[in-house]
Write a structure and sequence with these properties.
five-stranded antiparallel sheet; alpha+beta
């Protein structure tokens, strides 16, 4: 959790998040889960769904949870407890389940990298030396997957094919 004395600007990853990224490098990815935020609309409106949390499960006891946050203004590393608390709060508020878990390890985007080591997490650096928190690149060597803030809400992902 950020402290009141945290000098990190809101558009940059905090030191704890950078350290978390480093701790997952060279770990084997064993599974991937999506946590979708479901907003049931009023009658006649389409329901709003977006990817709220991406969970990367590694062969170590921990998982890396990346969230768009409730405001969708920054990618954040969150604790499992924060996800559970948000899901509980939404269920109490709306009287129904509002966060749904979807197993994504077999999806075409992830299937080739499950069982492979995450070589690095690459970030965009600002002029001031800090790292922007609107996107990151999961580098598995033969395949890179871009995770970024969605145009409207939540997270979006895809294979990165930059030169």
């Amino acid at each position: 959790m950020p402290t009141h004395h945290d000098p990190t600007p809101p558009d940059c990853f905090r030191l704890e998040e950078l350290e978390a990224f480093q701790s997952f490098e060279n770990q084997l990815l064993s599974d991937v889960n999506y946590y979708l935020w479901l907003n049931r609309a009023e009658a006649g409106e389409a329901p709003l769904r977006f990817l709220y949390v991406l969970e990367l499960v590694f062969e170590q006891p921990e998982a890396l949870l990346l969230s768009s946050g409730e405001d969708s203004e920054a990618i954040r590393v969150i604790a499992p407890e924060a996800l559970i608390d948000t899901a509980r709060r939404l269920q109490t508020l709306h009287g129904r389940v509002s966060v749904q878990r979807v197993s994504a390890g077999a999806f075409p985007l992830w299937q080739p990298v499950v069982g492979r080591a995450l070589e690095s997490i690459r970030l965009s650096k600002k002029d001031n030396g800090l790292y922007l928190n609107d996107m990151l690149l999961l580098d598995f060597g033969f395949r890179q997957i871009m995770v970024q803030l969605g145009r409207r809400e939540g997270l979006e992902m895809g294979v990165f094919s930059g030169e």
